[in-house]
Amino acid sequence: MTKNILSNTISSKPTNGWKWVPSLYFAQGIPYVLVNTVSVILYKKLGISNIEIAFYTSWLYLPWVIKPLWSPLVEFYKTNRYWIILLQFLTGLCILGVAYAIQLPMFLQITLGLFWLVAFSSATHDIAADGFYMQSLEQNKQAQFLGIRSTFFRAAMIIGQGILVMIAGYLEIKLQGLSGGIAQAWSITFACIGIVFILFAIYHFFALPKVQATQSSPKQLKEVAAGFSNTFISFFRKKGIGTAILFLLIYRFGEAQLVKLAAPFLLDKRIAGGLELSTSEVGFAYGTVGIIALTLGGILGGIYSSKRHFKQVVFLMFLSINVPHLLYILLAYFQPSNLYIINSFVAFEQFGYGFGFTAYLLYMIHLSDGEHKTAHYAICTGFMALSMMIPGLFSGWMQAQMGYKLFFAWVLVTMLPGYYIVMKVKD
Fold first, then answer.
1. Which domain holds residue 157?
2. Overall average pLDDT of the 221-246 stretch
3. How is residue 285 annotated by DSSP?
4. From CA 329, how far away is CA 79, in angstroms rounded?
5. Are 118 and 193 within one domain?
6. Alpha-carbon gap, residue 248 to 134, rounded angstroms
7. pLDDT, greater one: 376 or 251
8. CA dist., res. 364 & res. 357, Å (int)
9. Residue 282 lies in a domain
10. pLDDT tens digits, residue range 146-202?
11. Domain for residue 215, yes or no?
């Protein structure tokens, strides 16, 4: 009988989660930020058009959209510990590949391919990490470390789209005047990240506890695949599933367009309608101030919704995501140079998004409730990624046709279909 399939397992002895939970979820957050946010800034600095940036980087969401489809294979082939270490090592190699490819003539095609591999690896790593977390910690410990997980994932976002972007901006200045100085700056930055990820893999090889793995047969794998199919089908048989899917896809329709053009807008020349900030200033505004405000908004949203029914909070939270888009219209029209004003506007918009996104998470939890809660929640996360992917595909084209002023006005107007769906959900 083979030893390559893992079913539900538990650790053979109590494990110290402090040795690996913070580092594991920090490592989970970095690739997601690199692929979906930092790549946008990288391509903008390397002279790629907004249309191409939004279109190509939006496709990078696809592995997170479809990851529920291969989650049973991750659970049954080898162990979650094996997958975590392997994927972190492969992610590090791919990021090092990006660092090298940035300075090549065909950098766009090569780096997009490597970012795709990082995205696929990261989505699979999410499955393995969450499974390992549940296997290796007792139930009371799982609850205890939930806040730690969230904190270090948020820290990865701050480091990834804040500090790392600021480091790249600092290197751009240092290498200014050299041929290919911007590409070299980003190449050095990505090389450092790639090395860190390989070190993560080495550290987790020693730090992650080994869990007792049970042996399973190919027949059991077929049974699980059949069970997964039935679970998948049962999701689409839920009452009101059509409205529910529309809610998941449309609730953030405006934000999904804004997020792909916010950094290019901050970086673009004033003559092109942008604010002409430096790379470091964008890293601070969008990656540090913005993420902190996003986190605070999420915390307040959780507190506000904890003692109220979903139908009482969803409309206010929907407005809190969409109405602050008005601030980007003002930024586009007046093009302020004062960094305090710009950072304040970005912080307020991100705070509103963090506050309003709580309703989205609550709805996914509500929709997933029932016999197959975990699997159905995974399917919801696929729709969550799809809701960011689809609007992003055409957002760059829309901005190029309209200019930043009308584009941000368009983003605000696109809240109207979401308003209709939110009202239906409230009924």
1. 15-207
2. 81
3. I
4. 50
5. yes
6. 26
7. 251
8. 11
9. yes
10. 768 878 888 898 899 999 999 999 999 999 888 889 999 999 999 999 999 999 999
11. no
> Are the beta carbons of 256 and 247 closer than 8 angstroms?
no
Q: How far is the C-alpha of 319 from the C-alpha of 309, rounded, in Å? A: 17
User: Across 68-134, where does the E strand assignment appear?
Assistant: none
Q: Do residues 258 and 202 share a domain?
A: no
Which residue is listed with tokens 């809610």? 247
Asked if residues 7 and 220 have their Cβ atoms less than 8 Å apart, the reply is yes
Q: What is the pLDDT of residues 286-315, one digit of tens each?
A: 888 988 998 899 889 888 888 888 888 899
Are 171 and 283 in a shared domain? no
Is residue 2, in this structure, part of any structural domain at all? Answer: no
The residue assigned the tokens 């990078």 is 60
Q: How many angstroms separate the CA atoms of 122 and 34, rounded?
A: 10
Minimal CA–CA distance to 120: which of 79, 60, 201, 168?
A: 60
Which residues have a Cβ under 8 Å from the Cβ of 415 and sit 6 or more positions away?
253, 254, 318, 322, 323, 325
218: pLDDT confidence band, cut at 50, 70 and 90? low
CATH number at residue 109: 1.20.1250.20
Residue 2: predicted pLDDT: 35
Token pair recorded at residue 363: 């709805």
Looking up tokens 């391509």, which residue turns up? 43
User: Residues 20, 160: one domain?
Assistant: yes
Number of domains in the chain: 2
Higher-confidence residue of 242 and 370: namely 242
Continuous segment of H or E residues that includes residue 191: helix 181-207
- 11 φ, ψ to 5°? -65, 145
Residue scoring higher pLDDT (143 or 54): 54
In this prediction, residues 322-345 reach a mean pLDDT of: 96
One domain, residues 181 and 231: no
* Structural domain ending residue among the three candidates 176, 207, 238: 207
Backbone angles phi, psi at 168, to 5 degrees: -60, -40
With respect to residue 353, please indicate whether it lies within any of the assigned structural domains: yes
